[in-house]
Amino acid sequence: MSDDDFELITTTGLGYVEKPTEDASTRVVREVELMRMPLAPNEVQVEVTHCGLCASDAHMLADDWGQSFYPLVAGHEAVGVIRKRGSEVNDLQVGDRVGVGFNAGSCGSCGQCARGHEQLCADVQSVVGMGGCFSGLVHVSRRFVYRLPEALESSAAAPLMCAGLTAFTPLRAHCRAGERVGVVGVGGVGHLVVMMARAFGCHVTAFTRHESKRDDLSKLGAHRVVATDAEFEALRNDTAASLDALLVCSSAAVDYDRYLSTLRAGGRMILVGMPSAEKLTISLLPFMQRQLQLHSTVMGGCVDCREMLDFCALHNIRPLVQELPFTAAGLEEALATMHAGKARYRIVLVRNDTPVVEGE
Description:
Helices cover 26% and strands 26% of the residues. The protein has 360 residues and is an alpha/beta fold. The strands form 4 sheets. Strands 3, 4, 5, 8, 9, 16 and 17 form a 7-stranded mixed β-sheet that branches. A 6-stranded parallel β-sheet has the order 12-11-10-13-14-15, sandwiched between helices. The protein is globular.
């Protein structure tokens, strides 16, 4: 091989250059120069055109989980166009419009990978760990790149790559048509759970602390919206309305014991959102007395993602999005809007220019 085969590719990303502190200057989004390794035989190069902002991006930028490294470029809900493909890639073409999610690679040979649970592989690789999608381009294993159905617009498809998959996987695993399903935390992920659960044939109850969301949730498909203490008590005292499953999608800790009281005996609480707190407080007694079940979920595998995209295209499921420019100022505004709790319901950065790429 010639030296050209090992030439690094330079692109620009958006992120934090250092770990944020109380000093406001450390919380300013800046352009960050990224070095991409040469394209591997099993990889494709994707020029990013759209990228959604996930709550986990904010957690990672703030190092809430104590695992971040800086400079940090986040972003893992991307849509873009394939510009190059490795020598072993035959099923994707240059020019294809594709989606990229959080996972960017796995070993492909362990038991979890064989069962289609690549997200649980011990060697799973994240796209953020490889440079993030708030950037000009990414290199990703072709197994984790998904050709998008024509019916899905790019701005709508971007949030599906994480929020959509995170909503779809636990619904399919733990909920059945005809069951009563509750949704706590109706934000970026939760509003998709409402739409998908309705499409699954479930009776959907949406819990919110914001009266302003009531009409939205009804339009999205919720049969019942619980926004006040009086409505909560009415639901809890109505045995016929007891829930079979409750998906907790909030990215902040909630009063878990309070919501357990809405479940029927044998009901299931599924933890979907990931708060910054390392430990959650929840009582054991209700689980023992009423044989309740506690489940968790983390995104999904490659097959799950393909089926989710087809499901959304078939059932006309589209996240409600706010578009902002794919710039440092745009990401700053997106983070501020999210932290203020004003996102309705997913923010997507949209590129209106061609990213600068060197070394190609």
